[in-house]
Specification:
By secondary structure, the chain is an alpha+beta fold. Among the domains are: 76-234, no CATH class; 398-643, Collagenase ColT, N-terminal domain (Glutaredoxin, 3-Layer(aba) Sandwich), CATH 3.40.30; 667-767, Jelly Rolls. The protein is 44% helix and 12% strand. The chain is built from 30 helices and 17 strands. The chain has a 5-stranded mixed sheet with strand order 3-4-5-7-6. A 5-stranded mixed sheet has the order 8-10-16-13-14, with no helix packed on it. Strands 9, 11, 12, 15 and 17 form a 5-stranded antiparallel sheet that branches. Helix 7 packs antiparallel against helix 8 (168-184), helix 11 (218-233) packs parallel to helix 13 and helix 22 (502-514) packs across helix 24. The longest helix has 22 residues, at 407-428. 44% of the residues are buried.
Amino acid sequence: MRRIPALGAAFFIALGLFAPQSQAAPVGTTAPAGVSAGGQAGSTPRSIPVPKSPDARNNTPYELSSQDYGKQSTVPAPPVAAPLKTGKQFSAAAGEDPCTGQYDVINATGSALVQKLKALPYVDCTYPLFNLRGENAAKTFTEAKMATVADALRDASATYPGDNSTSVGQLVLFLRAGYYVHEVDQASVGTYGPTLETATHAALDAFFAAPHSKDVTDANGATLQEAVTVIGQIKGLGRYQGVLKWILASYDGSWTPQMDKSFKHFNWIIEDGLDPKTVDNQGWKAALKADSSILDTWSDFITRNEDLLNRSDMVSNEGRYLGYALAVPELKAKVRPILKDLINRYPNVGPTAAITMNLAWATRKFDKNNCAAYAICDLNDRLMPVILPIQHTCNANLKIRAQDMSAAQLASTCTSLVNQDAYFHKVIGDKGAIPGDVNTNLEVVAFDDYYNYSLYAWSFYNIDVDNGGMYEEGNPALPGNQARFIAHEADWLRPTFHIWNLNHEYTHYLDGRYNMAGDFDSNIVTPTIWWVEGIAENISFGYRNLRNTEAINEAAKKTYKLSELFDTVYEEDGDPDVNSTRVYKWGWLAVRYMLQEHRADVEAVLTKYRAGDWNGARTILKQTIGTRYDAGFDAWLTACASNSCGPLPEAPVAPAIPVCTIADPRQFDKNCRRDNLAATTGNYSYHFLNVPAGVQKLTITTTGGTGNADLYYGGGNWATTGNALAKSTNAGNNETLTIDNPPSGWVYFSLAAGQQDFSGVSATVQYQ
């Protein structure tokens, strides 16, 4: 997209690079343009994220605040359980199925319900209650029956022994199942009112007041974790903040596995309770305002258990939510010194980076432009040279900054991108860069894996990291603008080396430079995503000679008409997976079809895109084409699903320009070419021609050969890198200059070998 979404810690700790800020000497590297140190955001170009790999999404060892902030927090579904049987499915012979009492629970009421429920074997015969839907759900989880069970839990809690010998667990699980089914099938269950709320509060009050509810044993933990989850279901965190305070004050690494789960279940509640985008639906913010001492307990929990800090540990995972308290204005004065201490207490790399960087992220998110309060204004200066120490130049137009890449990996990445440039122009053609586009240089930033990308990229580059990378085009008309693709290695593919989405994103760079006028914001004033993502997918798969199996499988479904795909935007359809399928897989199909079957229409649209005439392109797509190609696209999809959709066609090759016949090898005439031009690094291949009066457009192009030749035009003077009226300095040898209304008489141009030798280059001059 066009800002389109490991090093050994012990070594650096020994050097003192990540000691508390008062002790650490700044390394001296400035933050990237547009980003203040410590992640305090300046004005930056818009970013649209790259899709995250399913592997990265599912296998991340530690879920970062910066990637999960803003998600809807819901109480999790129960463990997978066998479907609940109906009465007709049970054997008539008593005792053949230990769960026959499930059917009785559906129909029983009052004290009989409590008796039948407590008689169910725990957990095997209670968890299936979560699967009830429709009529059975309506009969089982009425407000009256839920209140009956809550009252029974209240009474039983007085003598709760810390295990399930009195069947308290079945009562808690019934309440949890009822609230869960009510959430997913409220149409069947109906509404819950104040009667149930009062009864559930009384039940939980009694349970958490029972002395044995605090037993640090697996027997108690099995029931405690479910009771904690009910707190979230009834939005009761504020009422039961004392329970969390007890857990924070008591927890240490000796807790049993079931008690650990009780602690983990609070994570599902705390984030929702502090979400600044919602009302205080948990009463949590109000509770913190009334008793902010829990913040000290929270901080003490981290420092007391600092030996457990190790990326994915529970202390890091729970501690990150402390930063969310900054979102409550009344708590800022209390929270700032707490976060300052924690962020600067532990190293920002290695096992403790998960807690320090997440809390630093919270300062940027909720206390923007106030890095001084946390003594982290120089955080980027200290971190970037260590996290991204490798700086490699492929050529004048392409460089790599990496966390951990070998010399061979750097070389192969450079080769891949340089060769892809040539492939792109074979498919698209070569009409030169967009006039005024100065994005001649791309920086590829490669973190070692998705974890490190998530942990640091937000700070270094002021981007969101709930994605698979970001391409930042910036303002291509601004001198000194740095186009940048921020990415990570696909660690799940190792030992194979691969930078995730590299070829896709490099196509965005090329597409933005040669096809799309202006910056990304201007590109999307009308729907252009069908082309932007479709061509990126086609070039990426085509260049690597890979079959786009997922897109081809989509073809058989015929989900969209071509005319509908011209309307594709990034955020639609509600479901992000559905939207991703439309954007990328169907974008690939739409562009593939148009290039194969209607190349002239593609060229007409691209002519408008290159001129920044977005409305003109839209008119071609929606009026000139409209629905005329829908039937053809439908037929093409049928064939595509069975034959891999055919090859990606190359651009038509223009008739060969004749070789110049003038004896002087430096001189050109009208519409001719010279081949096998060469120069060594630092030198030039000088040329000139005599332009007659009345010429409206002079075009000079270079192609082919090896090395890197840059093209300079000097008008009536010899052209050099320091004396030129126009220049084209792409990677490789594909350069184009178009001079409108050139002066009559002798004009001069040159091919410069600024960074490396070049040879075998062809230059062509045309004018009209």
